[in-house]
Amino acid sequence: MVRLLTGLLALMSSCLVIAPVNAQETEYAIEEVRPDIYRYTAGSYRSLFWVTEDGIVVMDTLSTEAATRLKAELDARFDVPVRYVIYSHSHYDHSYGGEVFDEPCVTFISHDLARQSMEISGAQTVLADLTFADEMSLTLGDETLHLQYHGQNNGAGSVSMLIEEADLLYVVDWIVVGRMPWTNLEGYDIEGMIRSTCDILAMDWDVFVGGHASIGDREGVEHYLGYIEALHAAVRDGMLEGKSLETLQAEIELPEYSDLLNYDAWLADNIGGVYRMLADQNYILKRPEVVEGMQSE
Ligand SMILES: [Zn+2]
């Protein structure tokens, strides 16, 4: 990563992009999505921060570099301190950099399982002071941030964050709007992704901000759910028919979802990821009827 010209940083109307010096550099941007709610972009990563009269809530720190740049911006632009840092889940690429905000007045929050996983795996960031198992609400001024766990889907202890008065929802990694899920779905649980995304669509919100890709709406999340359900069903059905991964990768096409970014590049990898999960987590290939079907082929 190459250093940016921090002197250039200034908040312009709603969106600020700091152009990198060359194409290899990480691009940073801050964009006001709703009044006082800002999306922070660091390359392909996105986080969120919310400025309230009681202080700033930072949702994901991303990395030491990204967090350092963000803190400088927050200090320069706002006259309230950071009060809470919340981790969306356990993975390092969304939760590193916590030390940048580690001051006595700042409370770090995550799901129980995220904290446990980060602790046991020796994650090099600040662990949560405050954890929860199912849901938790934070009230700042007269507004509420609702955190909720939806079960396993990606990493450990991944939660949704809903700023209720703004109808704005933040979810990282297991929902992406306008783009295919990440390559071979390493670290994901496809059935958990489907269940959790259904859960999200049962909640009341209008604006979706993800940890990657575009800002979206309910239609974008419904389209994403349609894709992961169709992908899962196509791979499952093929495996139950005794088809090999290579055959499934050659045969499966989901043209209804070809508008998703990286559809051509990642479809075979997505199929491979679902195949691996159904084999490893569900033991589908060990089921007696499937073994018998493969032997009689
Ligand atoms: Zn991610």
Question: What would you say this structure looks like, in words?
Answer:
- The structure is a single chain.
- The chain has 297 residues and is an alpha/beta fold.
- The protein folds into 2 domains: 1-173, Ribonuclease Z/Hydroxyacylglutathione hydrolase-like (Metallo-beta-lactamase, Chain A); 177-297, no CATH class.
- 32% of the residues lie in helices and 23% in strands.
- It is built from 8 helices and 13 strands.
- It has helices spanning 64-77, 92-95, 112-120, 190-201, 218-240, 245-251, 263-280, 288-295, and strands at 15-18, 28-34, 37-42, 45-52, 55-59, 82-86, 107-111, 130-132, 135-140, 143-149, 159-163, 168-171, 207-210.
- Helix 4 runs antiparallel to helix 5, helix 5 (218-240) packs across helix 7 and helix 6 runs antiparallel to helix 7.
- It is elongated.
- Residues 1-13 have low confidence and may be disordered.
- Bound molecules: zinc ion.
- Residues 93-94, 173, 211-212 line the site of zinc ion.
- Zinc ion (ZN) is lined by residues 93-94, 173, 211-212.
